[in-house]
Amino acid sequence: xxxxxxxxxxxxxxxxxxxxxxxxxxxxxxxxxxxxxxxxxxxxxxxxxxxxxxxxxxxxxxxxxxxxxxxxxxxxxxxxxxxxxxxxxxxxxxxxxxxxxxxxxxxxxxxxxxxxxxxxxxxxxxxxxxxxxxxxxxxxxxxxxxxxxxxxxxxxxxxxxxxxxxxxxxxxxxxxxxxxxxxxxxxxxxxxxxxxxxxxxxxxxxxxxxxxxxxxxxxxxxxxxxxxxxxxxxxxxxxxxxxxxxxxxxxxxxxxxxxxxxxxxxxxxxxxxxxxxxxxxxxxxxxxxxxxxxxxxxxxxxxxxxxxxxxxxxxxxxxxxxxxxxxxxxxxxxxxxxxxxxxxxxxxxxxxxxxxxxxxxxxxxxxxxxxxxxxxxxxxxxxxxxxxxxxxxxxxxxxxxxxxxxxxxxxxxxxxxxxxxxxxxxxxxxxxxxxxxxxxxxxxxxxxxxxxxxxxxxxxxxxxxxxxxxxxxxxxxxxxxxxxxxxxxxxxxxxxxxxxxxxxxxxxxxxxxxxxxxxxxxxxxxxxxxxxxxxxxxxxxxxxxxxxxxxxxxxxxxxxxxxxxxxxxxxxxxxxxxxxxxxxxxxxxxxxxxxxxxxxxxxxxxxxxxxxxxxxxxxxxxxxxxxxxxxxxxxxxxxxxxxxxxxxxxxxxxxxxxxxxxxxxxxxxxxxxxxxxxxxxxxxxxxxxxxxxxxxxxxxxxxxxxxxxxxxxxxxxxxxxxxxxxxxxxxxxxxxxxxxxxxxxxxxxxxxxxxxxxxxxxxxxxxxxxxxxxxxxxxxxxxxxxxxxxxxxx
Amino acid sequence: xxxxxxxxxxxxxxxxxxxxxxxxxxxxxxxxxxxxxxxxxxxxxxxxxxxxxxxxxxxxxxxxxxxxxxxxxxxxxxxxxxxxxxxxxxxxxxxxxxxxxxxxxxxxxxxxxxxxxxxxxxxxxxxxxxxxxxxxxxxxxxxxxxxxxxxxxxxxxxxxxxxxxxxxxxxxxxxxxxxxxxxxxxxxxxxxxxxxxxxxxxxxxxxxxxxxxxxxxxxxxxxxxxxxxxxxxxxxxxxxxxxxxxxxxxxxxxxxxxxxxxxxxxxxxxxxxxxxxxxxxxxxxxxxxxxxxxxxxxxxxxxxxxxxxxxxxxxxxxxxxxxxxxxxxxxxxxxxxxxxxxxxxxxxxxxxxxxxxxxxxxxxxxxxxxxxxxxxxxxxxxxxxxxxxxxxxxxxxxxxxxxxxxxxxxxxxxxxxxxxxxxxxxxxxxxxxxxxxxxxxxxxxxxxxxxxxxxxxxxxxxxxxxxxxxxxxxxxxxxxxxxxxxxxxxxxxxxxxxxxxxxxxxxxxxxxxxxxxxxxxxxxxxxxxxxxxxxxxxxxxxxxxxxxxxx
Lengths: 794, 551
Known about the structure:
- The complex is a heterodimer of chains A (794) and B (551).
- Chain A is mostly helical and 794 residues long.
- Chain A folds into four domains: 1-281, no CATH class; 309-447 and 621-707, no CATH class; 453-579, Four Helix Bundle (Hemerythrin (Met), subunit A); 715-793, no CATH class.
- Chain A contains 27 helices and two strands.
- Chain A has helices at residues 7-54, 86-109, 116-135, 139-157, 164-195, 200-209, 214-234, 243-246, 252-261, 266-273, 275-280, 283-304, 310-330, 334-361, 374-377, 379-393, 399-414, 416-441, 452-514, 520-579, 606-613, 621-636, 650-659, 670-696, 708-711, 716-759, 769-793, and strands at residues 63-73, 76-84.
- In chain A, strand 1 (63-73) and strand 2 form a beta hairpin.
- Chain B is mainly α.
- Chain B has a domain at 285-513.
- Helix content of chain B is 74%, strand content 3%.
- Chain B has helices at residues 2-7, 19-36, 42-66, 96-115, 122-141, 145-154, 156-166, 171-204, 212-218, 223-240, 249-256, 259-282, 286-312, 317-336, 341-372, 383-386, 388-402, 408-422, 426-451, 467-485, 488-508, 525-550; strands at residues 75-83, 88-94.
- In chain B, a hairpin with a 4-residue loop joins strand 1 and strand 2.
- In chain B, helix 3 packs antiparallel against helix 4 (96-115).
- At the A-B interface, strand 1, strand 2, helix 4, helix 5 and helix 6 of A face strand 1, helix 6, helix 7, helix 8 and helix 13 of B.
């Protein structure tokens, strides 16, 4: 049965080969099913090998399978060989188990992607590399897997490569990991120089032989520190963690498989595999591991508290939990480390897949501020997610409680400060995970809410029309003023006309008084007088009319002025409202009301209108089945290593073979154990209650908790970026400039100096290099011919 | 294993056919035939050149199949006295060190020709390429110093005309710089050759000989004489490698050369320098080389870091690859002067690896240029969208160059660094290892800018690899994967020759022993682990018992 070990990595490798050749032809969903069957075959093979290993004697559970000699050079030789022991096969079990489920999930998640088959190509290659990493019987095989998973991670993070952010994230992951690889390579070189081999089956006896030998401790310390550099890169520890949050740019199944459950635990695996070397190193080397882990755990947990992207919370949570594993390894608590690694693989994969299901069901929305109330809309996703939450929060009897408690117990045993940091981290973990669950699944469904941008867009529409009204009012006022002027002109004219008619009447009267009644002109004058008499009232009438027009025009000016003032003040009111508009999605608590749209509703932008048509929904069975399976594991996973009696320490007993007596010994009274467990439970429950208080009941403004340094991850990444983009980039540019101007400048300087000397000899030469080159050709051809002729003679 | 049986040759078989001379004369003959072809039929000259180079390549592969694995000496030796009174002979031979360089030359030329075309004056172009092939073969096979020097110089001529005649924009400047720079570098080597030959004859009282085996065996120069002569050799080789600060001809030559020129320049001609250091430095002057090692190690490490940094900020893809070559060749120098089996074997393998992956990179960039008429990184973007197969092939080649385990580039790089770490070169190895970080940085960044992102304009419609293009690069891809997954057949053939060289160095350098750790005693691996577990448990029990007594 053990002989089947080769099939474990071979199955996904064959899957990779088949998809490489036929993936495009198979297409969706066949390529996915092919990838899935490769992973499932590997899982089946692992189970068979596992059973074979169980059948062996407890202290003889080792099996080395050499496939072929890989790199031989002088005294150095490594095989393509596999080391099957409890540690490697435990890793294989959860890698292939979780891996198979995630393949199934991906068939649903990647539905409709134009590069569907390519996704499974990378996924199979990843699983194969990961299995080689843990199964390799020497450091170089582990390194092969190590780099292989790194390359797959790079491919998959930048899977949707047209977005520059994804492409950058992929590159960042690879390059940051290379810094770790630098440590790994130097560790291999150093091991070879001391042991003469980098096979675990040679390293481990060497280390065991030198147990307690001070002469070798310095070297072992250097090896351990170099391995720590390697592990900190791959397992995203301070200060190399920065790539992991960015890696969330990849499709969510990738985040679950690679960036939560498997690849990122490689560093912990490597340190555990090398436990005999850790045992012979100076104490401060392993203490460094523990402190790096503890500080990373605390650091990342504070950051997770203030993230709004559903995946970013989980990313920082992963960094934090990996810190826990480092803490455990550093204090020699290898079994709790592997135990928590397994339970973490279950519940964190579950949480990531759950978040993927949410993202999938919400039209690719990742912002938790726009979620809420999804429990009703996505029942399976929410129930399984809640199980994952209880597991990670450390609520008994879910898996995470048992494994986390073991680590805390060993920490208490080793160093109370580490225990305290671990406890605070656990508390923060329960808090931010509760926050996530509430924001996502409970409270009001905020999906349909207008966002700040949308409301502002509607307001902007409003302001535009209000300013239109003002302009109209201004125009009306101008028109009214014009008509007042015109009317006033009219009044003047009419007044003049009244005067003219009065003069005319007077003239007529005077003329009539001068002539006698029977004069011929009398009748004529009388007529004129009558006419003038009639003209006077008419003129007066006209004047009155004109005067009333003036009054009317004046009145219309007044009303236009009033309208303008009203328009202006309503605009001002709108603008004031716009500037103080509450941003509905910066800090909504679960209970806060939807922003009142009022009469804005008709003017919302298209994105809002479209969203009203979309209905968040549960995901297809291919996605929910893995959720259910993983939630089952997250519930019962703790049974792997129950603390009650020695007989229930299954995992501890099982892993003993791989740990070479280096597991830390507990010196803690049973009552203390119970006390610590109670403290941990109380802390978890208190944190959960606190989060409910803030986010469910809205009793505390979240802004008092979600401080800017948390949200911006203590400015670490920003600082790196500033250094790389500033002085780093300038330094590189300077090197290029130096090359061009100084080094090449010197060459060209010599050339021109030679040319100027040569110009004095120009009579001999044409100065064209083409000709001198030709001369060389002819000359050398002649030499060749001469030699050939000699050859002929001899 | 099937693969190993393919290579397994149990005993030396007599090859009646003049194998090695034919590797020089077939290309020369091909050049002659092309010269007789009608000038207006470009296709005739292309087909002839392809056939001639392919036959030469096939002969080189045949030689590889006939090569006796465990023999560390020169094989297929072909000797003909030439100028007997001066001790000059036409002697060719191949050992594990030159074997794969010859085969790589045999493979790269036909593939390079297949992947590219002449654009104009095909007849002259193909004549120069075939002369170049003959010369390159000659350099790697010469066992006579004068012949070596002749070939070493002759290859400059066809390369000069290829760059100047078929190159890009600033080709005349680049060709001239290349020619004069490398000529100047090797001017003193001729003097050095004459000095070593005549001094050896005088000091030993024997006849004049240019045969490197005799010269190496004699070791007749005093320490200072050897150092002086090595210095003249080293200058020529350092320019060729190129070592910092003698490297600036390379970016210009690479960038302006036509694709075939870049491929051969990177794949074959740069190796003349590192091969020279190995064959004519370490072998002829072991003590002086050993004494000078810190200088070369320093320059090699500078090349690795400096080349990578300058590569990172290049704006032209070809220039970027040119600077990456400086970094890669730096690794090879580190390996050579590690003076142990891992380092030198890694260096020899890396010479081949660099030829394959950098050759492939230049072919790919040449294809980009043909399609887009630019190599400017800023003008390219999102090519993966329009040309996914192209991007996939580029990715594989890039990862080989980055040194990803499982691909060829890693094996060489790893052995070099591993070897260098074991001896006096340890701290050089530590600094050199930072090169693996930088290599990822400049290549992945370039890849991101060229292939990732959303394509615009002409980038959105770039043609993907054609069937014939894909098949012309497929052999290189197969070698990249094959030599990474199963390098044993290659290393097994390199090892005996390297071992002999190291024995030779140990014999001739006072107090020098190969810096190499002893391998632990080998038992059954499973037993070793079980025993270790028992021992560990016993120790733990003893410790617990001691603690119990103490309390």
